[in-house]
Design a protein that fits this description.
The chain is built from eleven helices and six strands. It is an alpha+beta fold. Strand 1 and strand 2 form a beta hairpin.
Length: about 280
């Protein structure tokens, strides 16, 4: 597709990431269709665009966008205001933590509502409507009643299977397009740094570890060795593969075993042998 803004790349990066890590958000509908809440896509966009808009140098995200232009990207003003509010207060990570815990001030909550409304409006009127060439060729639709982006089940399966590669490809293309939009004043490497500096979940297993520590009797998931004082919490599906800190993905193991497993997946045999402990 022809692109004079980064919207399509942001959309497909978000869809691929949701397919990989939040697949439970998908709802299957008659006619082999899948619906993805536009709210979830807008939340991803907030995280993607925040570091770009927070950069010391102005980074354009559409053709002809400059510091003083009359028609910047629709959500730039509100997102910039939100960014200013969190300068010196922990930035994006701190904002997301406050938002998810309901700790935003009324004024900030109102600003966030307006920003999310702008993001959702932009998503469905621009990249969703025009993906594939638009008009009768669009590969996506928008269900206004369900407030969801609609695609074929086959396309959703492809996103689920190849989402990791799609995410990497869209980041690279996004960086290249931004360099072109800036007439090569912004290097692709600068954009990549921004796009990869979002609020990724930390490799945090402390809640799970505290729970397992409270158990009087525990054994290593993969070897059945008794666990006494020292132990590790293993990400069954490695964190580097799927950044998932859900409790079901965190199991107690002997430290030496965790060092051996590192970023490997457990075999089917290991899962079956450890079934009762799991």
């Amino acid at each position: 597709d022809k692109k004079d803004a980064t919207y399509k790349l942001a959309l497909f990066r978000a869809l691929a990431e949701i397919a990989q890590s939040s697949y439970n958000l998908a709802r299957y509908a008659p006619g082999s269709r899948v619906l993805i809440p536009i709210e979830a896509i807008a939340e991803k966009w907030l995280q993607y665009y925040w570091p770009l808009l927070d950069h010391d140098t102005f980074i354009p995200q559409k053709q002809g966008e400059t510091v003083q232009c009359s028609k910047p990207i629709v959500f730039r003003r509100d997102m910039a205001a939100l960014i200013r509010n969190w300068k010196g207060q922990g930035g994006l990570r701190a904002f997301l933590a406050a938002s998810r815990s309901g700790a935003l001030s009324p004024a900030t909550a109102a600003l966030l509502d307006r920003l999310m409304s702008n993001l959702k409006q932009t998503i469905w009127t621009m990249p969703v409507r025009h993906a594939g060439g638009g008009k009768g060729n669009s590969i996506l639709q928008y269900d206004q009643g369900e407030k969801a982006v609609v695609m074929s089940a086959g396309m959703w399966r492809e996103l689920s299977l190849t989402g990791s590669w799609i995410q990497d490809a869209t980041v690279l293309r996004w960086a290249e397009l931004t360099a072109r939009l800036s007439k090569d004043r912004i290097k692709p490497s600068t954009v990549i740094d921004c796009l990869l500096s979002g609020a990724e979940p930390d490799r945090d297993a402390q809640v799970a570890k505290a729970f397992y520590r409270s158990l009087a009797d525990k054994h290593c998931t993969w070897t059945d060795q008794p666990i006494r004082d020292r132990f590790d919490v293993d990400h069954v599906i490695p964190f580097v593969l799927w950044r998932n800190n859900d409790l079901w993905n965190l199991l107690p193991v002997v430290s030496s075993v965790n060092n051996q497993k590192r970023d490997k997946l457990p075999t089917q045999r290991a899962l079956r042998w450890g079934k009762e402990r799991i």
